[in-house]
What does this fold into?
Amino acid sequence: MSGSIVTRRTFLRASALAAAGMVVGLAGCAPSRSTEGNSFSASSSSSVASVSASASAVSAGSSNQSSGLANESARKPLVVYFSYTGNVDAMAHWIADEVGGDLVRVTAKEAYPDDYDATVDRAKDEQDQNARPEIVVDLNAERLANCDTVFFGFPIWWYDLPMPMCTFLEDYDLSGKTVIPFFSHGGSSSGANSLPTLESLAKGATVKSGDAISILGDNVAASEQDVRAWAKGKTGLGATGASTIAMKVNGTTLTMLPANTEAASALVASLRDAPISVDMHSYGGFEKVGALPNELPSSDEQITTQPGDVMLYQGNQITVFHGSNTWAYTPLGHLEGATTESLLAAFGEGDATVELALQ
Ligand SMILES: Cc1cc2nc3c(=O)[nH]c(=O)nc-3n(C[C@H](O)[C@H](O)[C@H](O)COP(=O)(O)O)c2cc1C
It folds into this structure.
């Protein structure tokens, strides 16, 4: 069934089961999970929600995250995912493309049937039994050891992780890594029990539940740009092993997540020597721009910018976009959580001096 994106019909069938009261004794990967607050229904209005899960991140050692830029290419992120009807598969491909990660698809050794209802039933049985279905995964220990960040994708199944992903989490050691969840659902937009389950099974990993992206199955096909923008915003510390950059302007400090470009690496490298100060002015009603002290290596591409994007223009101009423009730029990074409003509030209407330093 993989390959085609799930239709409303299939979701409604699943949600009808829940509405009919078939949701009993939800155990998830860990027994006795509370189901309070779950709403497996089609009433979810948000197409894309950055989830602020209540569970806190597990603390982890960072010894393998300090490898620096020299090892960056060898430490590409992994995009590990499970998908039955194709939604998470689509998200995984966009994310891998955006962050330059390797795709690792988890499948059950005994494939789930094409018949949707039969799969719903089997998934329910597996959850009730807290089963660990055997899985097929193309991932060797060396590749896993060579990554700091794992994007972890799944559909919500019976308010929780699909059990094959529980098998994965117990079979593969993610300790010391940053795990960034992404998921699709048919109404359980908060992820229900899935994020707490992930946090408890990914032992020793830092699970960024608060950074997760959640997309209603029916909206996945129209969400490519949102998913890509989200993934792009994760390409800072952890995703590439690079440092983040503090951009201080008028007393406000913004966090810039460096892009996967030579220019961004060169900027980070120069900031290791000393902070940089740039006098910026408004241009075009959509950006602030100023000259860097040194030229950076350009790899221009035609880009439609989003608020918060930081670009290199003509090799030595740094531009911060509070609006959008389409032109040939080299990505330098993205300002975390930035919006047009927050950027205009920070920069003001006129000229501003910006201080860049490593965080
Ligand atoms: C076995 C099964 C159980 C499901 N349980 C839930 C659920 O508890 N909550 C929910 O919001 N959606 C549930 N869904 C819907 C899926 O999460 C949703 O369709 C998702 O987009 C599928 O992603 P995929 O296409 O990558 O498999 C379930 C679907 C299946 C097949």
Remarks:
- Confidence is low (pLDDT under 50) at residues 1-27, 30-74, 237-241.
